[in-house]
Structures are given as C-alpha cells and as structure tokens.
# Entry
Amino acid sequence: MSLLTVGTVAFDTIETPYGRAERVVGGACTYISWAASYFTNDINLVSIVGDDFPQDEIMALNSRGVNTEGLEIVEGKKSFFWEGKYHENMNQRDTITTDLNVLADFDPVLPASYKDSRYIMLGNLTPEIQSKVMDQLDDPKLIVMDTMNFWMDVALEPLKQAIARVDVLTINDEEARQLSGEYSLVNAADKIHDMGPRFLIIKKGEHGALLFHEGNIFSAPALPLARVNDPTGAGDSFAGGFIGHLASTDDVSFENMKRAVIQGSVAASFCVEEFSIGRLKSLTKNDIERRVEAFKSLVAFDL
Amino acid sequence: MSLLTVGTVAFDTIETPYGRAERVVGGACTYISWAASYFTNDINLVSIVGDDFPQDEIMALNSRGVNTEGLEIVEGKKSFFWEGKYHENMNQRDTITTDLNVLADFDPVLPASYKDSRYIMLGNLTPEIQSKVMDQLDDPKLIVMDTMNFWMDVALEPLKQAIARVDVLTINDEEARQLSGEYSLVNAADKIHDMGPRFLIIKKGEHGALLFHEGNIFSAPALPLARVNDPTGAGDSFAGGFIGHLASTDDVSFENMKRAVIQGSVAASFCVEEFSIGRLKSLTKNDIERRVEAFKSLVAFDL
# Structure
C-alpha cells in the first residue's frame, strides 16, 4: 500500500567518539524513506530542501521507489543543517548548530497523487506542520507520528491536537514520562492512549522498544553492539522499517505491529553501524533477513 | 542438587514513594534463599545475625527447605542493619544508615554437611569472604557471584581474585562498565570473560538483563510494571530464582541458563511488588507459572 513520509531532508555534521562526518546527508525523512524502501517501492516523500542538496541523492531515492514530487526545492536558499557532537556514552549529545534555513518557511502542499496515501509516517517536525499534512489526506489507514521533547516544551497544545489524530505515537521513555506526567511506562502508556493513539511505541535506545496496545505489551530488544559509530537517525530508521513493514503487509493487527517493531529495530541496528545513511544505502534483503534471525535468537527461550 | 547460599541476613528500614517499612527482614541471602526455595528444598544457608533476629523468620526459612545450620547467631550483638530512601524514579537511592554490627566479624565456617554443595550462590559481600567460602568447598559444580561497585572502588584486587574463580558473575550495567573499562556491554563482556567467568549476566533493572556466554547473547526483558513498591532485593531475588532453577534442573547449558535468567526475572518481578520479602513469602507455583507465561508473551513474535 502507498506510504507517505514527511520530515526533514537535510545536511548534518556529526562528531562521535569514532569519527567526524562533515555536511553529510541527514534528516528524519531521509532515514525513514531509505529504511522503508527495503519493504515497499511506493513511497511518497514530502519535504523541503535548498538548491544545495545534491541531485544524485534525490535520484538515489527515486531509484528505490521514492517519489520526490513532494520534495520542494527552494532556489537560492540552503537546506536545513544540524551539527551535533555525541558524548562517550552515545546517549547524550550536544547540538552545536541548528540552521533552519528552508525549514523556517516549510508549508507542505501535498501533490494530488499523494492524497490517497494509506500509510502515513509523520517524522519529527513542528506539530502544526504534522497537522497540516493530516488535513490534506483523503483516506489514511494508519497514521504514525514521531515527535520529541522540544515540542512538549514549546508547543504542547498544538502537539496534543496532532497526537489526538494519530494511530501510533513513537517517542522515547523520557518523552513518554514528560508527556504523561507518569514515571511508570505502563501508566504513561495508559495516559497517552487516552490522548488518542491506539498504539504507543516507547523507544529506549540501547534497551530496545516497548509497544503498548489495549493493555497488551510487546518488548523488543535492541541488538547489543560492540560499536555504535553514529546514532544519528536510529529513531527515524526505526520508524522507516516499522511503517515500511506495515505498508507492505497492509495489516495493522497487534501481531503484525510486533513484527513491524522488530523490522524497525533491525533497521536502527544497521543505521548506527556507519555515519549518515551509509549503511542504509548498502543493505540487501539477505542482510535484513539475517539480522531478523539475530533478533529472534537474542530473545528465544523455551520454558 | 544441593544449593549453598551466602550473604547478609539483616534488617532494613526502607522508604520509597509508596511507603515506609521499619526494621523489616532483609539481606541478600534472605532474598536469595526465599526465591530459590520455590525451585529446590535442599538449600544450605551461610550467614550471620545477632540475637535480635526473630526465630520465627528462621523457622519460616527452615519450613521452605533452607538448612540454617550455617547461620551463626551472635549473642549480645545486633544484626546488620541498612536504611535507605529511594528517589521518585526508584533507580536511585540514598543510604541513610549502614550498621555493620555482626557483619564486621563475619568469618564463615562451613558446616561439614555443606562442603559438598554443588551449586553456590555468593551474594554480595566482601570479596575476601566470598573467597573464603570458595576455599571450603569440596566439589562445586557451578559458582555464581554477585558483587557491587563498592568493592570495585575499595577492594579491586581481592575482587578480581574472587571473580577469577567463579563460573557466573552477575553485575549491573554500570558495574560492568566500571569493571571492564569498556562502555559497550559487548566489549565489557569480552573483557570480563577474560577475567574468569564463562557466563556474565548484566542486570539492567527495568530494562531487563543480558546473558553473555562464548559469543552468544540472550536478552531477557523486565516485566513493565505499573507500580514498584520496593525495589530492595530485586537483584538478590533474581539471583535466587536463577540459581534455584539451575540447582533443581542440574543443567548448566546455555539454553538452560536462559531459562534460569527468565526464572530470576520472574522472581525479581514479584519481589518489587511488596516491601521486604512480603511477596516472596506468599508465592505459589501457579503464580510463578503464570508470570513465566507473561514473560513469554511479552517477547513473542513470529517473523
């Protein structure tokens, strides 16, 4: 089924304990679309870049089945740019620079051919923009929304209005606690369900992810890794693998959501192996299948 | 097979966001023995208390198959006492009081009938005492050792000497990082294997536990709970369920270790439901079986 992805397409400069990458391709929508492209070739991308964004990166997405008719290219302006430096533990990072550039004026207008998209992945953006995209959809089957603590701090009401309209919310554990005011993630999930989303995914980084739905909980592990070269985009890759699996199977049952969480975890585990989208660009179906098997054996027990 | 448990038997005063318990029964060996008693009734306890420790608590252990011949009772002295206060998030706590009392002179001498114990659970104590217990064993089949960061700070060499002699080390993630000097838990496990233990269990509290053995990894979830009333003894209950399962099945294969990790996780999940050993005292086989099923369904997916 058709998949619509919205979010940033951007440049990042990233420093981690294992290296530095200058002005490499980044952005939530980039990671989402690349990860999803291993599951479906019917992806409608909505984003904005300046005239500095490389045409060959756009063509690489096109070759993966990503329609970029909805990628607005603003002449004479620059793409969104983020520079960050990760601490030794990789769980914390300092933002060095955030240049909104074209993103300051982003007002997405969906191409006519996008409006009947069935699976929707709203990458992290202002909640107003996420709502504007939802306003333009004819008949979405499943809307998944990612967000972050920043919008809870500065735009809580618009954020709650957007959250009320989505089927699946993906946030991390600290964000779930902040949004709900509950420390226990079980209680946090109850409160967040009351805000609208039938499904809640709480991402816990190196500790995996939890999926909550109608009193059921699924706990997905993260793959323990000897080395994380660059965590940037891990959450977005998770989102891409997750929604890619759902769009390709067109099944929104809890059982299939569990599979989608594993596929998201697999995508995230690849993402962090290299800087930028390096690893996501070079995956094969076989790589993914073997990694799925690794996840299976990681949690398998017979008792 | 016979199980030997060593550690503190003590009083605790505990304050958590959900209540306060004054001078209740605590101690690593208490939690270990209670949790293990649901798997085997051939348990040899080694510890020390003052004459203030209630006889009916000792008899309650006896009735569960715990031999307390190795419980030294020092007339005219007091039992070990710890008072702690947990923060809102339950992952951090402040120690208010630590009165070593009888523990200051603890020099365990194993009763003759204990020496042929096959499964050994060394609860957290000074590494010197843990080594002294190992010195007195005739033919242990599996030695499991728990410890904590405190001994890494003040007694690293004796700790390393003890660790070199054990089969399984159980520590938390921060302790694994401190002991190995490696941030990645995969690399930390490699270094700790080199120190001696064939098996390493890294406890991650609300994030579950990881079992490492010869390049294999098993990831056990923690049960997401709406409310943790008292986390005290969760790690010791884990150790008790873990070694209890192993002693009762007499199988130290990786596959069976995985089952033991789940049984440990089940025991820990019960422990935190009530203050002190309240919940551990009232368990039934049926409670445990149902909780095992909950763990199974928590991680089950078919992909």
Q: What stands out?
A: Residues 18 and 32 of chain B are 24 Å apart (CA to CA). The mean pLDDT of chain B is 97.
